[in-house]
Write a structure and sequence with these properties.
single chain; 585 residues; Collagenase (Catalytic Domain); Immunoglobulin-like; 6-stranded antiparallel sheet
Length: 585
């Protein structure tokens, strides 16, 4: 092997970097040979299982490093690169028709897909893109762009994510990758020039179709250059360790005419992604290369298989428990006489006045979501185990409780069991009922033989705002403070959550969830319908964004929109749903 070399326009520096690492670590070559042997053993052992293999999805984080504005490439340029990778590795690329007929039989759908990460290593929602201003005007081949102290960005867990650094590389170098097992974990990944990443934007022809990343990720997945990195001193002696790629003398550049034979072959496979031809001339991986990449993902890079980086994180609502009971430890049960038609019975609950319902006023909370209501019941008896009360959430009207927002049946037998166990009675409204401003919670009372329910409340002589209301048998709502001159509040506790789910159109609309809300950079949208389109409208009705998805979720960048309230409209066939969200930078 001759001295390390770099061409005037080098597609990749992977070979040179690997040679440098082997010089630094004399044992590295032996370790890589052992890994290569394990790879071949895996291929041989799993040859008959190829048809049953599942498509592997690799979560990607793109670290954009910029010193000048043009280096801070747009999201669209990044998205285009992910699309190119998916097209190339699934053989969905439009230019596959250019594959010569003699190679059609070995051209492969590698069954590998790529997705920008949807959650970071801490489980937080992410776009899969980081952006870092750097004082470094240019990066040389190495690891400076991967260290914060040298103006770079530290990698995410390299066992779980494919880290790609996009930056201004020294002139003549398009990119390079770390061969599996050759680099420290903190520096494992792929580096691409911002001028050769994706399509459009800052890319420069003839390396403006995203094939540099296709090539470098091939190295990251343990593919070698198709000519076997022969340096020219002994043509035709190199090997890429793949049987179905023809032996060829050296790298091909530009766009050769087919056939272009060397080493006694019919033609070099110069259109293979692991050669050095221009982007427009590349169009295939082979079945042998597919096997090698698959073995790598089931071996030294098997951490990718269990990564959650490509899945939308489960966002649990952050809830606060509110109560209007001033002294919960001092709750009492008023008028404890057994109920009968000629006695008062329990003040809050089933009583001699045959009140129809009870409600507790909850002051303004802004726009929130009610996930759960807890009731501190004192007495519960039932004539039939199926008898129940109806728990409700109501809007606040001008005078007292108004429209019912949601209701749940609550068996009196369940209340009785909780009282016996000295526990609250919990009523679940997950994933949440949206309320705005003030509202009421409470329950409707039935008058069936043997049924009795009663709640604890604060004592009337305590300092209280008098938030307990009742509905008389005629359906009129009144405050206990107004009627009985007893300013009391009941033992009602409400879990108010910050993650809001809103359906603003007709009933039966599928559930929509947006988070975080308010949002500053990325709005995560989840919809029960996987295939849907969406529109973002300003309060004036102006369309400011739109798109579609087939995955049931969207990560929507909003950093370029102004602060304020926006409307989100989702369409799935004949189903329409909507919600509001707030942008707050």
């Amino acid at each position: 092997m001759g001295q390390p070399y770099l061409l005037a326009q080098e597609r990749c520096g992977t070979t040179l970097l690997l040679q440098q690492r082997e010089q630094e670590d004399p044992q590295l070559k032996a370790r890589l040979q052992a890994l290569n042997q394990q790879l071949h053993e895996w291929i041989d052992a799993n040859a008959d299982k190829a048809a049953s293999r599942a498509v592997i999805t690799i979560p990607v984080v793109v670290h954009v490093l910029h010193h000048q504005a043009e280096q801070n490439i747009a999201d669209e340029q990044i998205f285009s690169q992910i699309q190119v990778l998916n097209d190339d590795y699934r053989r969905l690329n439009a230019d596959k028709v250019n594959t010569p007929s003699i190679f059609q039989s070995v051209a492969a759908d590698c069954e590998i897909e790529f997705v920008l990460a949807k959650q970071d290593p801490s489980g937080n929602a992410t776009t899969g893109i980081t952006r870092t201003y750097t004082q470094a005007q240019v990066f040389q081949m190495g690891n400076a762009m991967k260290r914060t102290e040298t103006g770079g960005k530290a990698a995410w867990d390299t066992k779980k994510y494919l880290n790609i650094w996009v930056c201004n590389l020294n002139t003549g170098l398009l990119g390079y990758a770390s061969v599996p097992g050759s680099e420290l974990a903190a520096y494992d990944g792929v580096v691409i020039s911002y001028k050769a990443f994706g399509k459009g934007g800052a890319t420069v022809a003839p390396y403006n179709l995203g094939r540099t990343a296709t090539h470098e990720i091939g190295h990251w997945l343990n593919l070698q250059h198709i000519w076997g990195d022969n340096d020219g001193s002994d043509p035709c002696s190199g090997t890429d360790n793949v049987a179905d790629t023809p032996n060829q003398a050296l790298q091909n550049e530009g766009c050769p005419n087919f056939p272009a034979p060397t080493c006694g072959n019919t033609s070099d496979m110069f259109m293979n992604y692991m050669d050095y031809t221009r982007d427009a001339c590349m169009n295939l991986f082979t079945k042998g290369q597919k096997d090698r990449m698959n073995a790598t993902l089931n071996g030294v890079r098997s951490g990718i298989l269990s990564s959650l980086g490509g899945t939308v994180p489960v966002i649990k609502p952050v809830c606060d428990t509110l109560t209007n009971a001033i002294s919960p430890d001092g709750l009492v049960l008023y008028r404890v006489e057994e109920f009968s038609d000629d006695q008062t019975g329990y003040l809050i609950g089933h009583n001699g006045y045959r009140d129809a319902a009870f409600a507790e006023y909850i002051g303004s909370v802004g726009q929130k979501s009610i996930a759960r209501i807890m009731f501190d019941f004192a007495r519960a008896e039932f004539g039939n185990p199926l008898d129940s009360v109806l728990v409700f959430i109501r809007k606040a009207a001008t005078e007292g409780p108004g429209e019912v927002l949601a209701s749940r049946k609550l068996a009196i037998a369940a209340i009785a069991a909780n009282i016996d166990n000295f526990t609250y009675t919990e009523v679940d409204f997950a994933p949440g009922i949206t309320v705005t401003g003030s509202f009421y919670v409470g329950f409707e009372i039935t008058y069936l033989p043997g049924d009795t329910v009663a709640m604890y409340s604060t004592q009337y002589d305590e300092e209280s705002s008098g938030n307990a209301w009742f509905q008389d048998s005629a359906g009129v709502w009144s405050s206990y403070d107004d009627v009985y001159e007893i300013a009391i509040s009941s033992g009602v506790y409400v879990d108010i959550c910050s993650t809001v789910s809103i359906a603003e159109t007709a009933e039966n609309v599928p559930e929509v969830m947006v988070y975080p809300n308010p949002v500053s950079e990325i709005l995560n949208i989840s919809f029960v319908e996987k295939l849907f389109s969406y529109e973002v409208l300003s309060t004036e009705g102006r369309l400011v964004g739109k798109g579609s998805t087939a995955t049931g979720s969207v990560q929507l960048p909003v950093s370029r929109l102004s602060n304020g309230v926006y409307f989100l409209r989702l369409i799935a066939g004949d189903k329409i749903a909507g919600t509001k969200f707030i942008i707050q930078h």
